[in-house]
Amino acid sequence: MINADPQELAKFSELAHRWWDPHSEFKPLHQINPLRLAWMDGLSPFKGLKVLDVGCGGGILTDSIARKGAQALGIDLSTKALRVAQLHAMEAGTEGVEYREVPVEELAAEMPGAFDTVTCMEMLEHVPDPSSVVRACSALVKPGGWVFFSTLNRNPKAFLFAIVGAEYLLKMLPKGTHEYARFIRPSELAQYCRDAGLELHSSKGLEYNPLTQAYWLSADTSVNYMIACRKPTL
């Protein structure tokens, strides 16, 4: 069985045509993309690397990685989102970027150890088995390579900020974008990574000020957070 939730895919497919509109429901992704990109690029400079972006959606991060000089492959299971990503790459003239509709587990069997760096942003909380995605990402990266994940913490503050605040009060995201039960504590994600043979390197939190509408990276991982892992060298 494919590790995907049909309702989640349908939800994002319905919005696919708005993916590259910086004032749409995807405005937060456009705003946080430069922060995440800079943090990852600082740890594993993308230029000249072969990079996989898992759960790429409309390609906001994948496109940016390619523009850093990487050979970037974005994969997703939303046909509409991938078409939007491909169309944007053509219109923007982005070089070194490719998109495929394939489950990450299937790609891991097809191309083990093929990538220098693997990114998986804002996807784990939308799939039935996040640990399976983590294992596949580990299988896809070369020894010594980097794997980056981002997701949402599971605690009362995250419920208040990410669901009540972002979806209902501030209306930054469509209602129902997230399901609290699928949020993942950093300790849980760390265990998934260790079980998959990855070594944890560092983590970063992402904070937001609704008054200034500004995001910034911090040490606070209580709501949105990212972790960086490395695959041990042989």
Automatic annotation (TrEMBL):
Its EC number is 2.1.1.222, 2.1.1.64. One of its GO terms (molecular function) is polyprenyldihydroxybenzoate methyltransferase activity. One of its GO terms (biological process) is methylation. The keyword Transferase applies. It catalyses: a 3-(all-trans-polyprenyl)benzene-1,2-diol + S-adenosyl-L-methionine = a 2-methoxy-6-(all-trans-polyprenyl)phenol + S-adenosyl-L-homocysteine + H(+); a 3-demethylubiquinol + S-adenosyl-L-methionine = a ubiquinol + S-adenosyl-L-homocysteine + H(+). Pathway: Cofactor biosynthesis; ubiquinone biosynthesis. S-adenosyl-L-methionine binds at residues 36, 55, 76, 121. Keywords: Methyltransferase, S-adenosyl-L-methionine, Transferase, Ubiquinone, Ubiquinone biosynthesis. It is an enzyme of class 2 (transferase). PANTHER family: METHYLTRANSFERASE (PTHR43464), UBIQUINONE BIOSYNTHESIS O-METHYLTRANSFERASE, MITOCHONDRIAL (PTHR43464:SF19). O-methyltransferase that catalyzes the 2 O-methylation steps in the ubiquinone biosynthetic pathway. Belongs to the methyltransferase superfamily. UbiG/COQ3 family. This is Ubiquinone biosynthesis O-methyltransferase. It comes from Roseateles toxinivorans. The gene is ubiG.
